[in-house]
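Format notes (please read before filing issues)

Several people have asked whether sequences and structure tokens are stored in separate files. They are not. Every record keeps both together, in the order shown below: the sequence lines, then the token lines. Line labels are part of the format and must not be stripped during preprocessing.
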Amino acid sequence: MIIKLNKEKVSTRFYEVINNEQVSFRPKPKEYREFSDEIYERYNSLFSTEDKFNSAVIEIDPDGAYSEKYFWDSEQEKQDLLGGAEVFFQWANERMLSLIFEFEQDNNLLPTQLDADDELEYLSSWDSGVFTFHVNEKNEVEYKIVLTKDGIERVLEMPLKDYFIEGILNHYQITHTILSDEWKPWNTLIIKSPHNSIPYDKVDEFVRYILE
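Then the structure lines:
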């Protein structure tokens, strides 16, 4: 069994060795879930310790004897971080959609109407937006939220949640350290939100990283 893990998933490959050849097989779904859950629980419990691992190889002999090797693969870590960094904009955009709705709902900033069942229905207060996040020299996040409705722009004065600010700073730190040879220096992220998910085939139209 060859196992690769990160915070999002457990990837496994199962082989039988028959006549010195590796023949892949699929375990039973229930057994796989139990095995996968156990490995993931171990991964999480050791992640902040000296025994952390993101790869494992388990070999089982026909007589039941087995060996386990757990280790940290730095190249795998880098690829996992790169994969996450490349779609960070989508996480930021989707979280902003939720945060804006919650903030405007809580502060009575959303237009409303009654639906066919006379139930209160919230309407959208914006058609598109521009979210600008700047990491300053003090490692603080400065930001500006500009929303557009029917061609009219307005600035939304909304506090960001701590977890969101931490997400921006973590993204900044990772792209300037572990991924510094893959990622150009930046301190400002600009997301042009279409008020839904950003098309992955048009990222350059909606997302910009710049150095100011």
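For reference, the curators noted about this record: The chain is about 35% helix and 30% strand. The helical segments are 29-46, 74-86, 88-106, 162-176, 203-206.
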